[in-house]
Amino acid sequence: MKDLKGPQPDQFFAHRVMVTYHNRKKEGQIKFWRFFSGFSLTTSLLLSFYFYNFTKNKIDFTQAPINKSMVLQISEIPADSRITYISLEIDDDMQFVTDSLGLKNSKEVTLAITDLNQQELRLPFVFKAIRAGRKNIKIKFLDSDFKVVATEEQHLEFTEKTNPTERNI
Fold this sequence. Notes:
By secondary structure, the chain is of the alpha+beta class. The chain is built from 1 helix and 8 strands, in the order αββββββββ. A hairpin with a 5-residue loop joins strand 7 (about 135-140) and strand 8. It starts with 12 loop residues before the first helix and ends in a 10-residue tail after the last strand.
């Protein structure tokens, strides 16, 4: 039987085929893990960038100089037909400038709303800060029984600078 003509297979041919198959299988696994680690690294870097840049300043503080009179403007009014009153509560280091109504020493004011169909509501109360720092204005939307329907907070940072970056508040 040894008289077969033509090339004869090597006795280690099967072994070499299995080694090649095993190496290709390992190369596929290595490619998968390289892709997975690169994808994981990219995803974690993007998530870190997002959370660092977009959630650290979740509360946006509008800057304003101290002792400068400002008018409150509410940009988003809840779409609720029950709202008939708005209550404003200011921090201790702030005061209302509207003295004709006797509000200079008050910290909370409630007023009736006649037309909520406007896009923005400019309230007729002027206020200012006495000291620099971060201040909050709490806005409560009330129904006819003075029960809270919705709430909102405006965050302001008052500085001693005379011309900070100004934005609508």
